[in-house]
Amino acid sequence: MNSLYVLPFWVEVLTAVLLVLSSLFALVGAVGLLGMKDFFQRMHPPALASTLGAWCVALASIVYFSAMKEAPVLHAWLIPILLAITVPVTTLLLARTGLFRKRMAGDGDVPPEVSEGGREGK
Amino acid sequence: MSPLLAHAILLSLSVFTVAMVLTLIRLFKGPSAQDRVLALDYLYILAMLMMLVLGIRYASDTYFEAALLIALFGFVGSFALAKFLLRGEVIE
Amino acid sequence: MKRLLPAPLLSLALWALWLLLNLSLSVGNLLLGALLGFLAPIMFAPLRPLPARIRKPGVAFTLFWVVGRDVITSNLQVAWGVLRARQKPPRSAFIKVPLDLHDAHGLAALSMICTVVPGTVWSELALDRSVLLLHVFDLDNEAQFIEHFKTTYERPLMEIFQ
Questions:
Q1: Is A48 on the interface with B (CB under 8 A)?
Q2: Closest Cα partner for A63 from A53, A74, A52?
Q3: pTM (whole model) above 0.90
Q4: Which residue in A64, B43, C14, C64 has the fewest CB atoms around it within 10 Å?
Q5: Could you give the angle at which helices A78-104 and B62-87 cross, rounded to 10 degrees?
């Protein structure tokens, strides 16, 4: 490990706190994914990890590398932006898939199609 | 790198690993295919977060680019699987 | 000029993004970023069927901060709901929200806001875009939730895009 860099103590404390916090959010997301009873309920906890968890890690990365290079290093900011663009697409498509498959299986839990006269999936 | 940060990184990596194991249990258990796709997508996101933590540990910029790649591949993989489950084929 | 720069804001954003990624203001990077910002909208022009029109950037700015604050609060609420799931199972339900926003870009922005705020998952949109099916993680009052959803997110988006 690199021992050439001696960073101010508050930077290390902040980075440490943010990293542990994000891993705790990811753990709560995994516990929720495992413990929920219904597919649609299971979709919510992972979104928690990919927003707050990713924000905390990106912030820790920005703080640490900026302190190391003594100039703002902002490229870790790209990760939450990329996640904010790609995660909605996957979530929407998975929700549609869940609805479609449950309707095809004749499961009564999900509401019927919303559009009048429309065909759900060809 | 002070011992506080080194221990915190070790702790956060261990907690991420525990989260990955729980997601694996859901991957094996999930009664339907879309549950498994959800678990796989979440595994990709956890791997990406672990890459960023490793980037802080080794103080290198390469891990950030690896994390970007993992995010992109995870997105494309989950999207293709979900589209396949919805339509029966990926590209019509 | 419209043919050369079909989306000037997008070109500017791409240029800024290139400089941010490479973290340098050298002439080579400036030129390369300008080239990227110039070429990308032209090459992707066949994929954009409708031009996006943004009015009232001030409303967009406040909406950005409101969404940021809501992300944090509802993340903590979902985390709390997950941890309390053994004693008090969350009451999830599907809700139908009647929509007034019909613009495609506004709906895309609404779906992004909906997903980035955990606790709501956008499930289905009617073919004539009049009704939206949402799945909510923990619901106590349906009418109040619909009211909150429409005033906080849909009305600013209607002002921005329509």
A1: no
A2: A74
A3: no
A4: C64
A5: 20
